[in-house]
Amino acid sequence: LNASELAKLAGTITITPAEGAVNLSDTSFVYDGKTKASQAQGLTANVTVGNETVPVTLTPADFVVANDGVNVGSYQYTLTDAGIAKLQQAVGSNYQLTVSELAKLTGNINITPATTTADSNDGSFMYDGQTKASQAQGLTAEVKLGDDTTSIKLDASDIVVADDGVNVGSYHYRLSTDAITKLQQVAGPNYQLKADDLAALMGIITITPAEGTATVNDTTFVYDGRTKASEASGLNGVVYL
Predict the structure, then answer these.
(1) How many whole angstroms separate alpha carbon 165 and alpha carbon 148?
(2) Residue 66 burial by CB count (10 A; 0-12/13-18/19+): exposed, middle or buried?
(3) MBG domain: from which residue to which, for each copy (predicted)?
(4) How far is the CA of 133 from the CAs of 138, 156, 164, 176, 238, in angstroms?
(5) Between vectors from CA 194 to CA 189 and to CA 197, what angle results, nearest 5°?
(6) pLDDT at 95
(7) What is the torsional sign of CA 140, 158, 167, 238?
(8) Which residues of the chain are modeled with pLDDT < 50?
(9) Lesser CB count within 10 Å: N end or C end of the chain?
(10) Are strands 52-57 and 191-193 parallel, antiparallel or unpaired?
């Protein structure tokens, strides 16, 4: 081999793309009865190239949600072809993302219960000497569900009355464990009632005085020139309770 021939020799050095890595973010939002999991905001694919991790924002066209819905729960999403292409473009030619691995990636979108409130009404009835405050009729508790309100009737098993009694007065009541369970069932999985708020919920039952009647009798006496009418004897009044 002479020098001129050696100088003509050529070889190829190929620099192949380095492997990049990707993970999908999770996110959550509060139930509103309208927004689907696929409409979640703030999702990203975090692409690691070398020592650097870059978040790539995902739009609804970049992912698909299994069993998409608006109700409270956990929804899993995967990348669409458009999402995979976006990530491959993001890493450039020096890094490689395997399509089959990208297709296996999953992330979670959680729809969490909306916090709601409940209220209880006051009640009253007339004294009868027998009916206790805890036996009051017409008591209700209301739960606010978005723009709607649902009420349930409360009976004696649903309330606990402090110093329960039959006499005229005001009695404070709170909800029993049974009533709290009923309200939570009415709220369902999409709404959350705070236990502390329910425990603090109170109402007033008022026992009002009964209407009584009274009568007075008539009387007469013989004129004697001295005794005034106001000094008549035998007068009495009768009160009916």
Answers:
(1) 36
(2) exposed
(3) 21-113, 115-209
(4) 12, 9, 6, 15, 29
(5) 145
(6) 82
(7) positive
(8) none
(9) N
(10) unpaired
Other CB atoms within 10 Å distance of the CB of residue 146: 13
User: Buried b / exposed e across 150-183, counting CB within 10 Å, b at 16+?
Assistant: eebebeeebbebeeeeeeeeebebbbeeebbebb
| Per-residue model confidence (pLDDT) at position 7 | 82
Largest CA distance in the chain: 172
The tokens for 95 are: 């890094």
Residue 24: Cβ within 10 Å count: 21
CB atoms within 10 A of CB 139: 21
pLDDT at 230: 82
How many residues would you count in the chain?
A: 241
Structure tokens belonging to residue 170: 């005001």
Which pLDDT score is estimated for 15? 81
Helix and strand counts by DSSP (H, E) for the chain: 5, 20
- β-pairing verdict for 73-79 and 63-65: antiparallel
Question: What pTM, to 2 d.p., does this model score?
Answer: 0.76
Reduced 3-state DSSP string for 24-64: ECCEEEECCCCCCHHHCCCCEEEEEECCEEEEEECCHHHEE
pLDDT at position 239? 66
Go through the domains of the chain in sequence order and give each one's CATH number: 13-112 (3.10.430.110), 116-208 (3.10.430)
Predicted local confidence at residue 240, as pLDDT: 67
| 110, β-bridge pairs | 28, 74
